[in-house]
Amino acid sequence: MVVQPKPLWPLRPFLLPLVVFLLMISSNIASSGVQSFPEKKFLSLHKFQGKQKSGNNGSTSRSSCLSQKSRWESGATILEMKHRDSCTGKPLNWNKKQQNRLIFDNSRYKLIQSRLENNISRESTDALDIQIPLQSGVRLQTLNYIVTVELGGRQMTVIVDTGSDLTWVQCQPCQQCYNQQDPVFNPSVSPSYQSVLCNTSTCQSLQFATGKVGVCGTSPPNCKYVVNYGDGSYTRGDLGMENLMLGTIPVSKFIFGCGRSNEGLFGGASGLMGLGRSDISLVTQTSAIFGGFFSYCLPLTDADSSGSLVLGGNSSVYRNTTTISYTRMIPNPQLPTFYFVNLTGISVGGVGLQSPSFGNGGVLIDSGTVITRLPPSIYKALKAEFLKQFSGIPSAPPFMILDTCFNLTGYEVVDIPTIRLEFEGNAELAVDVTGIFYFVKPDASQVCLALASLAYEDEIGIIGNYQQRNQRVIYDTKESKLGFAAEACSFD
Ligand SMILES: *[C@@H]1O[C@H](CO)[C@@H](O)[C@H](O)[C@H]1NC(C)=O
Ligand SMILES: *[C@@H]1O[C@H](CO)[C@@H](O)[C@H](O)[C@H]1NC(C)=O
Ligand SMILES: *[C@@H]1O[C@H](CO)[C@@H](O)[C@H](O)[C@H]1NC(C)=O
Ligand SMILES: *[C@@H]1O[C@H](CO)[C@@H](O)[C@H](O)[C@H]1NC(C)=O
Ligand SMILES: *[C@@H]1O[C@H](CO)[C@@H](O)[C@H](O)[C@H]1NC(C)=O
Ligand SMILES: *[C@@H]1O[C@H](CO)[C@@H](O)[C@H](O)[C@H]1NC(C)=O
Ligand SMILES: *[C@@H]1O[C@H](CO)[C@@H](O)[C@H](O)[C@H]1NC(C)=O
């Protein structure tokens, strides 16, 4: 069906040249009974006096943000999840922050693509790779979401990652540890800590989970691991077992990495929680308790926003506002520990895009990549349709990988086309209004469509975390399916 874009809503100029605050007024025209074609969502650009909310009052936000709450409900453990920007304490220039985030996002994207077989011929052509500045202390910027668990009776705030498997924390004695907020875990004072020996199958399973074999230490012959995150960040240490508490649920003999040498700024967190697909991931290790289910709702970056990581599959604990639609997980032998789904279509403002690349292989769904990357033919179609429907708005210069930008200074409310990602089995992810635009400038003079193109048609598409905000994303590893539903993220 051919549809005409609806004119923009009355737009009033705004006076205070300050910071933009996103506010959703209404996100679903169809359900409120108003004219529904083409589908649009309201985005309110609210400027307010004062500094941006996140990170300018370090002392208070830091102490509260590194101790997330948890609860037990209907057979599930619910961990409060926050964006770690709400924890960084130091105010960072908005522009710089947005720029850094995309630089590191690009390095994660490169890392994922480099694991593919067909990457060799392209290495020399991609001179940009080498220019990615990897300053010590600003690594792993893409892994953004944190939760608090208890290991060996100690609280640990860790970064959540669906793209890796080994859970680890920094351990004493440290050869090299970055600064963290909680005290560093000391296995020698924990009676329940046990080291894993290198002649065990657990140690051997590291090969699959981390790409590196576990090696034998000398007296005792314990299992030594290494995980490289590709952007220069790494953790090295001993594989150990310890009692883990997820909310109120104990997990005994949980296998984790006791990291003696760790490089990267993990946002002051104690370590990382690996939610990938291998045997060593937290999901697999706790599958007797939680049935191989986990789900999350990723909140916005400001200090007031909370989301949740739910371990366990009883859907009565979700706060979804639409029904859950499921799609099958697609196996990818080249990246076996990542989660892949079959993207079969995209619609913009209700208009379906055409591309031969839909349904070809899988796209990766990642909690760690920020910006969704689509095959060039799909991205081109999306951009064209978006521009057609979002017409009459002044454009702004491109920003790094984001090539479709607007100057929204002077607009109070804009009416933006909806974006729906469709998956095999009629599943759908309706991107929330907060996941469509990336605010490069806080005064809204440069606001970009938060999706980008892959360099090549046959690279792996990635559904990034920006487009997963305010969604319940459900991973059912037993039945190998992934579910989506809209949800306004909150912990309570
Ligand atoms: C931080 O916030 C607290 C309470 O909201 C306030 O008492 C304190 O003065 C603020 N600190 C700074 C540096 O703004
Ligand atoms: C799911 O939660 C509901 C509501 O608390 C409860 O009645 C039901 O028994 C639970 N189902 C399972 C399988 O635990
Ligand atoms: C892909 O490229 C990387 C270097 O960027 C190389 O180390 C790796 O072996 C290549 N992958 C394959 C499967 O050949
Ligand atoms: C592993 O080595 C330890 C001692 O180094 C030994 O006691 C144990 O039996 C070995 N286990 C296996 C499975 O070989
Ligand atoms: C949440 O999802 C469940 C499962 O699909 C569904 O039964 C329920 O109606 C949904 N809640 C709302 C408010 O749509
Ligand atoms: C994706 O789904 C489409 C439509 O159901 C199907 O034709 C295609 O073969 C699927 N692709 C993969 C890689 O499974
Ligand atoms: C954005 O638009 C406003 C008018 O609405 C204009 O004053 C300003 O110069 C523009 N900014 C940029 C960066 O183009």
TrEMBL record:
Protein name in UniProt: Peptidase A1 domain-containing protein
Active site: D161, D366
Keyword terms of this UniProt record: Signal
Single GO biological process annotation from the record: proteolysis
SUPFAM superfamilies xrefs: Acid proteases
Entry annotated with the keyword Signal: yes
Assigned protein family: Belongs to the peptidase A1 family.
One Pfam family linked to the record: TAXi_N
Annotated InterPro entries: Aspartic_peptidase_A1, Aspartic_peptidase_AS, CND41-like, PEPTIDASE_A1, Peptidase_aspartic_dom_sf, TAXi_C, TAXi_N
Domain Peptidase A1: 145-485
Top-level taxon in the UniProt lineage: Eukaryota
Keyword field contains Signal: yes
Span of the signal peptide: 1-30
CDD domains associated with the record: cnd41_like
One MF term in the entry's GO annotations: aspartic-type endopeptidase activity
Lineage, uppermost ranks: Eukaryota, Viridiplantae, Streptophyta, Embryophyta, Tracheophyta
